[in-house]
Amino acid sequence: MADTLEFNEIYQEVKGSMNDGRLRLSRQGVIFKNSKTGKVDNIQASELAEGVWRRVALGHGLKLLTKNGHVYKYDGFRESEFDKLSDFFKAHYCLELAEKDLCVKGWNWGTVRFGGQLLSFDIGEQPVFEIPLSNVSQCTTGKNEVTLEFHQNDDAEVSLMEVRFYVPPTQEDGVDPVEAFAQNVLSKADVIQATGDAICIFRELQCLTPRGRYDIRIYPTFLHLHGKTFDYKIPYTTVLRLFLLPHKDQRQMFFVISLDPPIKQGQTRYHFLILLFSKDEDISLTLNMNEEEVEKRFEGRLTKNMSGSLYEMVSRVMKALVNRKITVPGNFQGHSGAQCITCSYKASSGLLYPLERGFIYVHKPPVHIRFDEISFVNFARGTTTTRSFDFEIETKQGTQYTFSSIEREEYGKLFDFVNAKKLNIKNRGLKERKKGMKQSYDEYADSDEDQHDAYLERMKEEGKIREENANDSSDGSGEETDSSFNPGEEDDDVAEEFDSNASASSSSGDGDSDRDDKKPAKKAKIVKDRKPRKKQPESKKGKDPNAPKRPMSAYMLWLNASREKIKSDHPGISITDLSKKAGELWKAMSKEKKEEWDRKAEDARRDYEKAMKEYSVGGKADSHRGERSKKKKKKQEKQVKGKGDKKGATSKSSSSKSPAKGMSDSFKSKEFVSSDESSSAESKKEDSEEEGAASPPPSSEDSASGSD
């Protein structure tokens, strides 16, 4: 038999991480070399106590137990290699390589067995899983429950945080099974042990995070938080900062301890430990150390016997043990005289403390933001009422914090504080820049014109985009509207229309042309005084179909050419989605391709201007005059049909209606006055009364049209 066995592509399990490497078995022992780091693990042959062969996720695995309780697991073997390994173990290590399969029933109740530094959860005779107790970092007990927390491996993609065991109550010799379970774990686990007596104990302190009342036991290297349900052991090395903050009511104090890594309870992480004290509560404290030890250890920072306010004693002891400074609020003073601002964060009300080097929010959830982490701050209007505003902070990592419902009276103090700390303020108002960053606080609260509203500006921009899309889609229909793009051209159309009416009426051949000329001018003046929007229906009704159509924009020319292609590429697309898709394609189009359509649009615009000039010279007036002659011809044919001979009706009208030939123009018949086209409403009324009334002698223009 060979003296050595070598296996490539073998994986070693270390706290949930699978490290690939090469395994070598020799007479001297077992050697594993990590392929990534080059680290070598050496197990002496004399230390081996047991070898187990079993099926695992990566094929088959080998578990080795040493006499001092360590466990080594190697995966990635093939099934055919069992015989070779079994013979090698018998020959060189004098061990029987046992075969044990894991239980895969999926049950969650069974028996826990402790063997050396290994905890095994078994169902029947088969193990379900095994936990090396050296990986346990914390063991806490409940009424019928034991919770194990584990040391974390940074190389593992997925880490096991904790395991909870329910221990049913039993009546055996008066021994609590939960405590017995915990003692078996603590005897082998790598946990923080409370060795010796505590330096001092603070009883029944009110804790906001985690919530409840806890006894705080101060040990030389860690802090023990003991509650009715949970226990937490907090090493002083995990304490980052200490804060002592006065409550807004001036009767209470917050003592905040920042932790990294945080303490854990299930899936909840507590990065801050927040204690609430009353200023009126005093205590006399005696340290469980002699005076020489106190002097030698704390160098005058603490004494054996101390007395004072409870919050002062706790903060003083923590400062001496953690050896960190306590942060207190700086020079900031709010509108009410307090050193904090009442606000809301994530729908919970709390207090925001501006510090000398950052902000801290207490208490649910607690937030600490340092100034060097801040990218910019922003003052925004409140979403519910104008009596409050929001204070937004965005960090350089992109995280945004919004503290809302801040009273408007606090704005001036907070703005001055932020400005003095030289923080970047986003969206400063125009008035601020003109006055050298001096803010008028009353105008912020009452004026809607001078202050910049970021939300309103964003809504305006979105409104402009929607309006542009709507205009583009209306142009694509091929129809023209009077209020499409150029509202100024609408006034020109109205003016030209009334000018043409005036010229047509002045061309009539009767002797009252001066009076008739004044009427259209007076009517045109009334129209100009009115708003163009109210004349849209009338101008649209009288629009000349022979007038040149306005040219399309570059986008609309491209859209008309590409609409069918977009439809074929996206079958079943709606009109709204087609417009959105077209807008996206147009926006993504290169500048060179857009210039091609810009040139086509420019050519179309020049053709339109040329056609408009030709149309304005003679085409527009001729078209209106031709329409009037057609209307008059129809009117005369209607009169002839109703009265028979036109001459007889005329003579009858002249004998009955006209008292004398040379009578004044003011006695003209109603039909004669309304024959002028200065009023469209009167002409409609005339058509309804013509059958029962005789018409006056025709003018020269009427004669000509009648002879036709």
Describe this structure in words.
It is built from 18 helices and 32 strands. By secondary structure, it is α+β, with helices and mostly antiparallel strands. The strands form 7 sheets. Strands 4-3-2-1-7-6-5-8 form an 8-stranded mixed beta sheet. An 8-stranded mixed beta sheet has the order 18-17-16-15-21-20-19-24, covered by helices on one side. A hairpin with a 2-residue loop joins strand 20 (252-265) and strand 21. Residues 429-452, 474-529, 534-541 and 645-708 have low confidence and may be disordered.
**Main pleated sheet:** 8 strands, mixed
β-strand number: 32
Query: Could you report the average pLDDT, rounded to the nearest whole number?
Result: 75
Give the C-alpha Rg: 47 Å
Give the overall shape.
flat
Oligomeric form of this entry?
Answer: single chain
Relative strand content:
25-35%
Which structural class should the secondary elements be placed in?
Answer: alpha+beta
Helical residues, percent: 25-40%
How many distinct helices? Answer: 18
Main β-sheet, spatial strand arrangement: 4-3-2-1-7-6-5-8
Regions with little confidence, pLDDT below 50 for 5+ residues: 429-452, 474-529, 534-541, 645-708
Report, as a whole number of angstroms, the end-to-end distance.
Answer: 131 Å
Q: What's the helix and strand layout?
A:
Blueprint lengths: L4 E10 L2 E9 L3 E6 L5 E5 L3 E9 L2 E8 L4 E7 L4 H12 L3 E3 L11 E5 L2 E6 L2 E7 L3 E6 L3 E6 L11 E5 L10 H12 L11 E10 L2 E7 L3 E5 L4 E5 L3 E8 L5 E14 L2 E11 L3 E5 L4 H8 L6 E5 H13 L3 E2 L13 E5 L2 E7 L3 E5 L4 E4 L3 E8 L6 E8 L4 E8 L3 H10 L4 E2 L3 H5 L6 H6 L7 H22 L11 H20 L6 H17 L6 H6 L12 H16 L5 H14 L2 H53 L2 H12 L12 H5 L5 H10 L10 H8 L1
Parallel strand pairs: 5-8, 19-24, 29-32
Antiparallel strand pairs: 1-2, 1-7, 2-3, 3-4, 5-6, 6-7, 9-10, 10-11, 12-13, 13-14, 15-16, 15-21, 16-17, 17-18, 19-20, 20-21, 22-23, 25-26, 26-27, 27-28, 29-30, 30-31
Helix pairs in contact: 9-10, 12-13, 12-14
